[in-house]
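Folds vary. Our protein:
___
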Amino acid sequence: MSELALTVLLIALLWLLIVVAERVRPGVLSRRGVEVKPPLLIWRRPVTFSWARRLAGSRLAGLALDIAAIASAICALLFYYYTGSTVVMRLSGVPASETGGLIPLIPGLTVTWRNIAYILIAFSIAIVVHEVSHGAAAVVEGVGVRSSGLLLLAVIPGAFVEVDENEFSRARLRSRLRILGAGSAANLVVALVLLPLVASGTSGR
């Protein structure tokens, strides 16, 4: 069996088990904070990020969040520029080998199952750092956090932090930018810290 076929089979079995469990025992998943709306699966848990309240009003925390907002905006601009220029070059007939590009991580298609453990570890670190940073920034800026959780959109995993929408909309523009930029900036910091370690490890082989 090919890796692609195995991936499709495993995903189909996963969703079949989820749907059957909800049909056979209605509410068995919802009582555990799981919402099933195929192709969307959401697991939600209440969180407070109370530890982040200690940083509220801190000038150092405010400065860090300002830097995070700026860094996140720069990274977003670079991403859209790179992606846009790649698309334009591809449409202009430039070979893919010369344009590079972004490749989605799809088990069995673009990622072999032999490497899936490494992908899961990296993804877990990235997603935890990203969402915790959003939640902590929200609390520091005086915006309440209602819940946090994981989601699965068909085959694409993800995570989220749900802030109080009313408080977020009433917050200053600067605060909203700080909250929105915290996740990406935290991922950038982790990448800059881990990249030399990974590079040194692979070069030593």
